[in-house]
C-alpha cells in the first residue's frame, strides 16, 4: 500500500490509500477513497479534485483509470465535472436512491456475515463504530 498526497484542502492534505496488490480495480479503490473522504469531511462540497492527469501521475496509474473513477463518481452523484473547473465535490442528496443502493449492497454483505455467525448485535456495534468516524 502507498499513501499518496493526491488531494489537498486548505492547509491540509487528504491521502489516498491505493493497494497495488489488491484484487479490487484501481478505479474502484479511487472511488472508495474519495467517497470516504467526503463522508469524513476531509473533502467538502465545492472542493476541487486534482485533474485526471495530475492524479494519474501522483498515483502512478493510467489516466483512463482516473477518468473512469471520476465518471463513475459523477454518475453516482458525488462530483460534477466541468471543462473549466475540473472535478468538484458536489453530492446529490437523493436519499431514496441512496437507500435502495445501500440495501442492495448490504444484502450480500449481511448474508456473508450471517454465514460466518456474525450476530445482529455485532453488526450494529460495527455500524455505530463506523458512523462515529463520520461525525454522526
Write up this protein.
The chain has helices spanning 26-39, 52-59, 63-75, 95-115, 120-133; strands at residues 2-9, 12-18, 79-82, 86-89. With 136 residues, the chain is of the alpha+beta class. Mean pLDDT is 86; it is low at 1-5. The strands form 2 sheets. A two-stranded antiparallel ribbon has the order 1-2. β3 (79-82) and β4 (86-89) form a beta hairpin. The chain contains 5 helices and 4 strands, in the order ββαααββαα. α1 crosses α3 (63-75) and α2 crosses α3. The chain folds into 2 domains: 2-89, Arc Repressor Mutant, subunit A; 95-133.
- Say what oligomer this is: single chain
CATH architecture of the largest domain: Orthogonal Bundle
Q: How many distinct folded domains?
A: 2
What's the CATH class of the largest domain, please?
Mainly Alpha
The number of distinct helices, counting runs of at least 4 residues, comes to: 5
Overall geometry: globular
Strand order of the largest sheet: 1-2
What would you call the structural class?
alpha+beta
Proportion of residues in helical segments: 40-55%
- Whole-angstrom Rg: 16 Å
Spell out the CATH superfamily of the largest domain: Winged helix-like DNA-binding domain superfamily/Winged helix DNA-binding domain
Q: Per DSSP, what share of the residues sits in E-state strands of 2 or more residues?
A: 15-25%
Give the termini distance in whole angstroms: 29 Å
Nearest-integer average pLDDT: 86
Low-confidence stretches: 1-5
* Total strand segments: 4
Amino acid at each position: 500500500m502507498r499513501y499518496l498526497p493526491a488531494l489537498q484542502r486548505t492547509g491540509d492534505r487528504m491521502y489516498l490509500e491505493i493497494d497495488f496488490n489488491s484484487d479490487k480495480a484501481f478505479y474502484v479503490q479511487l472511488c472508495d477513497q474519495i467517497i470516504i473522504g467526503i463522508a469524513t469531511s476531509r473533502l467538502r462540497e465545492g472542493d476541487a479534485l486534482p485533474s485526471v492527469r495530475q492524479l494519474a501521475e501522483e498515483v502512478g496509474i493510467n489516466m483512463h483509470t482516473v477518468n473512469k473513477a471520476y465518471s463513475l463518481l459523477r454518475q453516482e452523484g458525488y462530483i460534477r465535472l466541468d471543462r473549466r473547473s475540473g472535478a468538484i465535490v458536489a453530492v446529490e442528496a437523493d436519499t431514496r436512491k441512496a437507500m435502495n443502493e445501500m440495501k442492495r449492497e448490504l444484502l450480500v454483505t449481511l448474508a456473508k456475515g450471517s454465514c460466518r455467525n456474525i450476530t445482529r448485535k455485532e453488526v450494529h456495534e460495527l455500524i455505530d463504530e463506523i458512523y462515529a468516524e463520520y461525525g454522526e
